[in-house]
Amino acid sequence: MNRYLLNISYIGTHFRGIQKIVNKVEGPHVDTKTIQGCIELALRSLNPINEIQTVISSRTDAGVHALHSTLHVDLQRRNSKPFDPTTITCVLNRLLQKNGFPIRVLSTQQVPDTFHCRYNARGRNYLYRFAVAKNGNSHTDRLKNHDVFMPVEELDRCYFLQNCTFDIERLRAGSHMFLGLHNFRTFMSVSRQRSATRDHPRYTLRTIDQIIVKPGKSVAVGANARLAESLYDYWDIEFTAKAFLYKQVRRMVGALLALATGRIDERSLYQMLTIPSKNSWDHRVLLSPPFGLYLCRVYYDEKDLKLPEVFNSNELAGAASN
After folding, report:
1. Distance in angstroms (rounded) separating the CA atoms of residues 69 and 61
2. Could you give the percent of the chain with pLDDT greater than 70?
3. What's the whole-model pTM score?
4. Is the pLDDT of residue 17 over 60?
């Protein structure tokens, strides 16, 4: 049995999320409404003799995308030899493309049997993309002229705000409040899968290492890109931490957008952060939609990925004689 790390990317628009749902009543089945289920379906084409059980490093919800995420899987060939990682990548991508799944395997790597893609992750980087209508291009005026434009390439890829009263510097300053160690219980949505661990006071402690707010750009092409960037200011917010809570990033973005548009003030944001409770959530804040969110990178220490050195029999015999 050998363990493999799969580096993957996907467009999450039409998926229920990355995590498959196991129905114990109906028994094992292929869940093609999730990224994990689609990859396990593709892995069957390798015909391993063991049962395929993948482990995901990061949970993303319905509509969230990933430029880079990871999962690991144990596979055993009939001849007990390891699978070639490049072959795994090619076979999986061929099957995923054939079935029309918007998922691609970036690379495959054999890793130590003790490696765990979630527990060994040293950090994660998320990006949230949004675009704000430029001054004088308000939602009301544009509706009167019937010229509300959104490039087709950006559908379900970016959050468009039809609000000309937007203060990006206020958003940037507010983002600094999240940096460092905080109890983010207010910014955690309640998961359907509750556990005693999630109720522990220390579970909601997280350290945000970095938040970068910077100008973005349209992913449209040609005339669509020129028109989009004449109508909207694009912005990117990047969050880096070892781990995040359930829907934490989308809630932080929602709070920052509410601050930038004047729905809340800095005092309200400070109270949500310093009084950690689900009751502290300011309901003037809207949860930012999932389609603007991208998991950009899962980080590992290279030494955790390195296979242990295996000496051949001649080297062992030579060492014994010395």
Report:
1. 13
2. 86
3. 0.89
4. yes
271/129 same-domain check: yes
- Domains in the chain, number: 2
DSSP string covering 218-239: ----HHHHHHHHHHEEEEEEEE
Residue span of the structural domain in which 266 resides: 122-299
Whole-number mean pLDDT of the chain? Answer: 89
pLDDT tens readout for residues 80-94: 899 999 999 999 999
Domain containing residue 192: CATH number:
3.30.70.660
Q: From residue 38, how far is each of 62, 92, 189, 249, 293 by CA, in Å?
A: 14, 10, 26, 25, 21
What is the residue type of 198?
A: R
Q: Which of 89, 287, 274 lies closest to 190 in space, CA to CA?
A: 287
> How far is the first Cα of the chain from the last one, in angstroms, to the nearest whole number?
33
Q: Is the Cα torsion angle 264, 266, 267, 273 positive or negative in sign?
A: positive
Residue type, 143: L
Contact between residue 239 and residue 252 where contact means Cβ atoms under 8 Å apart? yes
Distance (Å, rounded) from C-alpha 132 to C-alpha 130?
Answer: 7
Read off the pLDDT of residues 159-202 as tens digits, 9 standing for 90 and up.
999 876 899 999 999 999 999 999 999 999 876 544 445 555 57
Q: Which amino acid is at 91?
A: V
